[in-house]
Design a protein that fits this description.
This protein is of the alpha/beta class and 287 residues long. The chain has helices spanning 19-28, 45-55, 86-112, 118-124, 133-142, 149-157, 172-181, 198-210, 225-237; strands spanning 4-5, 33-36, 58-69, 72-79, 170-171, 185-188, 215-220, 241-245. Strand 6, helix 8 and strand 7 (215-220) form a beta-alpha-beta unit. The longest helix is centred in the middle third of the chain and has 27 residues, at 86-112. The radius of gyration is 18 Å and the shape is globular. It binds adenosine monophosphate and manganese (II) ion (3 copies). The site of one manganese (II) ion has 4 residues, from loops. One manganese (II) ion is lined by residues 9, 14, 39, 132, 134, 249.
Amino acid sequence: MTVYDLHSHTTASDGVLTPEELIIRAKHRGVHVLAITDHDSISGLQAAQNCAFSQDISIINGIELSVTWKKNNIHVIGLNIDTTHQELSNKLVELQQIRQARAIEIGTRLQKAGIKNALTGAQQFSANNNITRTHFARFLVKSGKASSMSDVFKRYLTHGKPGYVSVEWVSLENAVELIKSAGGQAVIAHPARYKMTNAKMKKMLGDFTACGGSAIEVVNSGCTKQVIENNARLANQFGLSASIGSDFHSPDNQYIDLGRFSALPGNVTPIWHDWKMTERLSENRFS
Ligand code: AMP
Ligand code: MN
Ligand code: MN
Ligand code: MN
């Protein structure tokens, strides 16, 4: 049976492993098809494709786009995207500019809250200057401001807390349109993490489906049986196919690891049902 992990991060965003290190770990953990889906960046994909052949693993070119939908921050994954697509690349430049400006503002706000040099601190945790809240969180934990990653988000980096800065990311419609025009499939990442009411989730999935979205993540590392069942119900209700992925960032979190998650329920259509691999596993060309 082919093992798919369609959500993972590298040093191109807030993962701690380089694309090569990630691939070697995925291989050891029995993953056959790995999508690399860095936040608003495709800069790790070339190195990943170069390394995939020698490791005999199939790498899917992916991305995790930051989206604002009705003031909610949601994540939309693109799978099998053409990394040379101009419109997508242009949007990524814009998103990186938003990230840079937001990082400066987060640093200023934390300074006002009595935490010095947070921007420089966050930058030191980032290999490619694609600064996310995770980099600030790692700096804050290291400086002893909080005991764990979840603690630091709760105290400093979420809505209403000193280091939270709200920005307007790409719209849901635009995100799906960009992914589709780059030849990819759009997937709603970790639906249960948005803490939306059922009604709001249905409105969001209605909008997503209307603009051509393909799938939702039904299973991530750490999802409970109940969450998986609910996600599967939503997938079927909206005629969406089902994706699966760890959302791996770092070996430090023992609960989230490559290939470590429950199986997709039998009543959903896997997103890969119509993917056609060529005879070479390492080439990610699908017709
Ligand atoms: P950003 O896109 O810069 O707002 O950063 C979002 C990232 O922060 C997510 O992709 C997660 O990796 C991380 N994150 C968000 N909330 C938490 C949390 N409670 N605990 C650990 N990491 C989190
Ligand atoms: Mn992340
Ligand atoms: Mn995400
Ligand atoms: Mn992710």
